[in-house]
Amino acid sequence: MRPLTLTRLLIRCGILAVILFAVVVVAMKLGAVQVSLYGLGKDLVSLLLHRTSSLSSDYGMIVLGIRLPRILLAIFVGASLSVAGVSFQALLRNPLADPYVLGVSSGAALGAIVALIVEARLDLTPEMAGLITPVGAFLGAAVTIAAVYILGRRDGQIDSTTLLLGGIITASFLQAVIMFLMTTLSGNNLRGSAFWFMGDLSTPQPSSLLYFLSFGFIIAAGAIYTTASDLNLLLAGEKEAMHLGVDVPRVRIVVYIAASILTGLAVSVSGTIGYVGLLVPHVMRLIFGSDHRMLIPASALGGAIALLIADTLARTVTSPTDLPVGAVTALAGAPLFIYLLRRRIA
Predict the structure, then answer these.
(1) Domains of the chain (ranges plus CATH)?
(2) pLDDT, tens digit, for every residue of 214-264?
(3) Distance of CA 235 to CAs 85, 232, 258, 278, Å?
(4) What does the alpha-carbon distance between residue 297 and residue 292 come to, in Å, rounded to a whole number?
(5) What does DSSP assign to residue 202?
(6) DSSP H helical segments within the chain, as ranges?
């Protein structure tokens, strides 16, 4: 296998970026109302040339006001979950490691439901009501991250097996609490929490929140990428990596915290979307190999593509009714996971 060079890295990422752009264009066109991309393109060019003061009301509302923010949210969530997934799989050396296995999604879901209960009892402004669920979900994810981290420590170090078991037990306990709290909700809050629990990108997010999410993704994913070479060596085992000069405790802390932040940010605005963080890294690994210098950016772009396709299907298959995007990823992800499992066994 030829060594990875900067040119090869840029070419491969460029190909994935072109595919992502094509999927974005299709996603902007498809929906309950078909949009002419030719007409939209003419309006955008005219706007750039200062020939018109604004886009036509139809295009501005449908494309820029509704679809584009949802597309950007799908890109962020898919990229975050995939980068977190590939990081956990490398750190724990477990192909089944996934952001949700560690209980982070359950913690975020609990925080969101608590926020909905608080929202129902307080007289909040529309702006505050739109932010309280993501904030509550992120705080729930942060508390769960800390709890699982404490459970996973043995003799001052993180034990991979204990960490996974601690995440599974924590998730099971939080699921029971969530089921209990959902019985206290009624009406729109109950329906909204049920959709959010299945994974949903239809809730509009403030532009300021999207900027914050983008900044958080760049910082956390960048921190993980600085450990890419160390993650390659960790695949051979922790002792071997230490003999080769890897500061294993530092890599563990950086990757675990950064990947958990990515998961918490994603779940706080999308709910529990499964299989993206589990399967996308495996598919990218089959295509590009196991070098994390390539695998991390490829997983980010691949996750964005996969979730954007899933979300486009979720809002078009039963149009004008939206499906939870988590249901689409589960329907597509389960057969793919079975195929990959059988392929690995064979």
Answers:
(1) 69-345 (1.10.3470.10)
(2) 888 999 999 999 999 999 988 887 788 888 888 888 888 898 888 888 887
(3) 15, 6, 19, 17
(4) 8
(5) -
(6) 6-29, 37-48, 57-59, 68-92, 104-121, 126-151, 160-182, 187-198, 207-225, 228-234, 238-243, 248-270, 276-288, 292-314, 325-345
**Helix 276-288 vs helix 68-92: crossing angle, to nearest 10:** 70
For 157, half-sphere exposure in the C-beta direction (CA atoms, 13 angstrom radius) is 10
CB environment 216-233: b (16+ within 10 A), e (fewer): bbeebbebbbebbebbbb
Instruction: Give phi and psi for 124, each to the nearest 5.
Output: -105, 155
Burial degree of 234 (CB within 10 A; 0-12, 13-18, 19+): buried
- The two structure tokens encoding residue 238: 């922790």
pTM value is: 0.85
Structure confidence by residue, pLDDT tens digits, 284-341: 998 998 899 999 999 999 999 999 999 999 888 877 777 888 888 888 888 877 877 7
